[in-house]
Amino acid sequence: MPALNGKTVVLGVTGGIAAYKSCEIVSRLRKAGAKVHVIMTKNACEFVTPLTFETLSNHPCVTDTFARPERWEVEHVALAKAADLFVIAPATANIMAKMAHGIADDMLSTTVLATRAPILMAPAMNTGMWESAATQENLQVLKARGVHFIGPEGGFLACGDTGAGRMSEPKDIVGEIEHLLAIKQDMAGLKVLVTAGPTREALDPVRFVTNRSSGRMGYALAENAQQRGAQVTLVSGPVSIAAPAGVKVVPVQSTEDLYNAMMALAPMQDVIVQSAAPADYKAETVAAQKMKKQGDEKLVLTLVPTQDVAKAVGEIKKAGQVLIGFAAETENLHENAEKKLNRKNLDMIVANDVTRPGAGFDVDTNIASILADAGVEELPLMKKTELAQVIFDRAMELRGK
Asked: Which of 252, 306, 315, 336 has a CA positioned 20 to 30 A from the CA of residue 142?
């Protein structure tokens, strides 16, 4: 794991039964060449002894805000500055609440408040605590600030319940740590425009035509570009997920809204990724009042085509711009995607067969093929966050040509 070699990871361990798994996290990080400093809360010491982490990390385990350090320094500030990545595993509901509200009343909460390093949290708690309104609100607050999360997973919990709340496995947490530390800053100074989510085409004041797009792919792309240093604008249809921190969001409803936003924004961009799923048709006439059901009488709707936004963006493409499109297909994947690639003046298109398990709408994974002048690159099943990184890797290769 070259991304971990020589990196400093500060690991916060809070009071939950999953604290024993954190020992394996330290061991795996050390074997990969990372320097690990552990901060334990008082309650965490009831589950695992500080000596265990000191032996595994080869560094003193910090538990007391007022303990005298071996050499003089303000320890919470020193660790906050030293961290390349700050990890909290397990992360209890308590530490999430403290971080969301800026409470610093022990060594861990004080240090994480002082750090400017990226933060990764691996929640672990009872299902009821995880699903509570307070925890979910704190989760959204922290995500909006740029905190990364892995898990929790579903399964049998130590309390006897079955459901969400089990901490992710150490190997997966270390894999996410490696991913976060491997993110390059190769897009610094670039302006990137990403579209995401569905559009809605009104039929009457209460009904509309739309599709099943969740926006997850577009939001993953926006987050990856922002992490790589780009200035990111996210043009988003109506979705139920929080926007990545540091990303400018332009909300749209209809395909016409999307068209207008893209015509205004596209000329200033270096890279444009159109992962939104705009409706292809809209009502020829929108009813002024709610359409009433008339017994068994059929309702006939006349639909007309919407603007082809991707084609319009391709027609005003500037020299040096990289245009990337998406093709969600149910048949003839590569053939249909190649037609879109050429017809819409794209440099690259990401195609996926939405009928395949793990590649459809409203899931966290995808199975994609990337088509460009160089040919077809078929990718395996992967998380959308991982696919976002591959897409921008290929975009940067195109810019270098």
From this structure: 252
